[in-house]
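Subject — a protein and its fold
Encoding — discrete vocabulary of local shapes:
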Amino acid sequence: MAEPTPVQLFRMEERRRQYRSGSFFLKVCLLALFLLVPFLFPSFKTVDLAMQIVIFATLVASFDILLGYTGILSFGHGMFFGIGAYCVAFLIGRYGIPSYANLIFGFMIAAVVSAVLALLISFLTLRVKTIFFAMITLAIAELAIILATKLTSLTGGEDGISLNVPGIFAVSFSMGDFLGIAITGKVLTYYLILICCTGLFLAMLRFTRSPLGRVLQAIRDNVQRAEALGYNTFIYQSISITFGCVLAALVGGLYAMWVGYVNPESSLGVLTIMLDVLLMVIIGGMGTLYGGIIGAAFIKITQTFLPDLQHLAKSLFPHAELLHNVLERWLLLFGVLFILVVIFFPKGVIGSVKEKLSKRKTD
């Protein structure tokens, strides 16, 4: 048997170090925390917050494939999230009965539709560079919202579509108690989505660390140099867009399963979905994937708890009218927090931490 080459020996040693590093144990602890959330914090508000973080962290990671690893700014990524949500809602809500087959079929249709649409958008608009490509994708996303709103007979319009998850994932399903926690359909749905999102995240990690992912990063850093090396940058960029958009559609289907409701604003909205995704990737750090977890946690926690500060202030300081008025405008506080994060972490939390650690190693 041939002895391993120096490159293979280096990669084997790199893998050993990876599984012994502190960051690896931190990731394991984070996953364990999400697994234990229904038992440690059984209130629906906390479980829903954890699930929202998991879903949007995966969505942000899929967007980071385009922006952080390929250098493509698209404002239409949220549209594919909505396409996935609507495909699942059509099959188990509006036009089909809640069944496992229809649920799986809904995800399959979402993947196929998003792949075809992503390839079509790539071949029609990718020749346009930088901000012009972003504006075209924004226009397409706005068109999708208009169609979903106006085609009432198909999509339900602004009223949206309510759906029931089948079998053991139904809200009414119950398996009794385990360690003092009621194992309901909602809890089982939580673990199903957590497992699926973890699998999608691992697939994205493998994608970015593959030779294909290295080529995408080379295109991001210098398109002309990548072309000079013989790479067809158009094909590679199309693959990146298609891969990220298919993952976004699958995440959208999981989101529809969790909330049980789909409408244009909550699933396709540029301001409600795409803006949050952009803020999350900026906060976490572009080109990191794991930054999406930090960004999603920051946005979702602030959106969940900042509006409650006014009620807390009224109970603790009943006569402080100025404080009540300030906390009533919680978006102002959110803006201040976002500015502070950008000032202290100019490359996002993960990106800035990596930069500081690399400087320490070189010093």
The mean pLDDT is 86.
